[in-house]
């Protein structure tokens, strides 16, 4: 899993004055907390990896010197107070990752966490979009800058017309979890190997393809198709790890390569 790291900490007087032992602890904590900055206290594991002995009271005293950097939640978990503003300065409800983070905050009762509404079932009345369109794709596109699908992205008579930078950039903003460039390569290969397929609107074809890919990624976060918009989980949904994401992309790239090689035969 990849996340931002604060390179300015080395210039922070508080961090500079920490002993090497607690510098390593702080870095370990920031790397090993979940996507919401919450960590289940396990000082035994920290001691094993860092080869140092850590006591709860002493550790909290050192880290919280001058400022409350770690808050102890009601369930005993540790919460990094500045983690959310640093990692997600514009935490919202349009990205799967952001929804996952908001659900984790809500689950653990972190003050200020928002209610999260999710769009899942195609055609469901529970969709959060204010528009009249059905389905996840329609709802997301209506959320994009609060507008309907821009007219210039409405209709493409050929795939070549649809395969343009502006349209792909638009789709990337609507579907931030999808690798749009890779999906367009897959679409182009699929159309080439299925030359009998013809579409009146290739813009609609591309959006449908990307939307189906997005649903598969969406479901990987633990959501089902039958949940209500405002929900709680006994177990929080788990985001796709970087290794899983790479594996999915590699599998798709291999399929594209295999299809391309068959065309050459």
Explained architecture:
The chain has 265 residues and is mainly α. The chain has helices spanning 13-17, 20-32, 43-50, 56-63, 83-87, 96-107, 135-143, 159-162, 165-174, 180-193, 202-219, 242-264, and strands at 38-39, 70-72, 78-80. It has 2 domains: 7-89, Arc Repressor Mutant, subunit A (Orthogonal Bundle), CATH 1.10.10; 135-264, no CATH class. The protein is built from 12 helices and 3 strands. Strands 1-3-2 form a 3-stranded antiparallel sheet, with helices on one face. A hairpin with a 5-residue loop joins strand 2 (70-72) and strand 3.
Helices and strands in order, then pairings?
Layout: H1 13-17, H2 20-32, E1 38-39, H3 43-50, H4 56-63, E2 70-72, E3 78-80, H5 83-87, H6 96-107, H7 135-143, H8 159-162, H9 165-174, H10 180-193, H11 202-219, H12 242-264
Antiparallel strand pairs: 1-3, 2-3
Helix pairs in contact: 10-12
């Amino acid at each position: 899993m990849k996340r931002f790291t604060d390179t300015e900490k080395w210039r922070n007087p508080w961090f500079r004055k920490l002993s090497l032992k607690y510098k390593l602890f702080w870095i370990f904590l920031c790397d090993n907390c979940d996507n919401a900055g919450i960590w289940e206290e396990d000082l035994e594991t920290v001691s094993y990896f860092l080869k140092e002995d850590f006591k709860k009271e002493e550790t909290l005293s050192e880290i919280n010197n001058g400022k409350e950097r770690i808050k102890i939640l009601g369930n005993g978990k540790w919460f990094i107070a500045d983690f959310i503003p640093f990692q997600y300065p514009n935490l919202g409800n349009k990205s799967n990752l952001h929804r996952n983070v908001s659900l984790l905050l809500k689950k653990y009762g972190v003050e200020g966490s928002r209610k999260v509404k999710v769009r899942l079932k195609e055609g469901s009345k529970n969709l959060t979009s204010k528009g009249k369109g059905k389905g996840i794709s329609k709802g997301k596109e209506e959320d994009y800058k609060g507008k309907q699908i821009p007219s210039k992205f409405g209709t493409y008579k050929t795939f070549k017309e649809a395969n343009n930078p502006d349209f792909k950039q638009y789709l990337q903003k609507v579907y931030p979890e999808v690798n749009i460039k890779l999906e367009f390569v897959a679409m182009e290969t699929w159309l080439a190997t299925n030359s009998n397929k013809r579409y009146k609107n290739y813009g609609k074809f591309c959006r449908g393809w990307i939307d189906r890919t997005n649903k598969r990624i969406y479901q990987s976060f633990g959501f089902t198709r039958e949940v209500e918009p405002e929900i709680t989980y006994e177990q929080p949904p788990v985001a796709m790890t970087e290794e899983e994401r790479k594996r999915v992309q590699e599998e798709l790239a291999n399929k594209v390569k295999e299809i391309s090689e068959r065309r050459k035969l």
